[in-house]
Amino acid sequence: MSESGEQTARLPTSVPRRLPRVVLMATIFLSGAIVGGVWGRFVAREQMLSMLQHPEQVPDRILPQIRLGLSLDDDQTRQVEAIVRRRHAAMEVVRSNCYPELLEQF
Fold first, then answer.
1. In the 3-class helix/strand/coil scheme, how is the chain assigned residue by residue?
2. Are residues 29 and 60 in the same domain?
3. Residue 83 is part of which domain span?
4. pLDDT tens digits for 30-54?
5. Are 70 and 101 in a shared domain?
6. Both 49 and 69 in a single domain?
7. What does pTM read for this prediction?
8. In a domain, 10, yes or no
9. CB neighbour list of residue 50: distance below 8 Å, 6 or more residues apart
């Protein structure tokens, strides 16, 4: 009877060993997610501010992404570049008209 009492009183040793590892892994994962989220937000904010402060650089920044995303050849790249630069110039005219009004509202 004492033998059966000892067997029921024992807990498997693998369960207590596994718990700290799972907690540690979850803590590391959550820490990484938090740091990555904060860093991503910071980088996105800096890029947006840079584009607002230097709008002339916007076409040069987005053209490589368009070329890679669409797998354009050189002729297509030149055509898309002309379109992007033309549209960007038109958007800058609109922004130059609206921006002072927006600042006044702020």
1. CHHHHHHHHCCCCHHHHHHHHHHHHHHHHHHHHHHHHHHHHHHHHHHHHHHHHCHHHHHHHHHHHHHHHHCCCHHHHHHHHHHHHHHHHHHHHHHHHHHHHHHHHC
2. no
3. 55-106
4. 999 999 999 999 999 998 888 878 8
5. yes
6. no
7. 0.52
8. no
9. 57
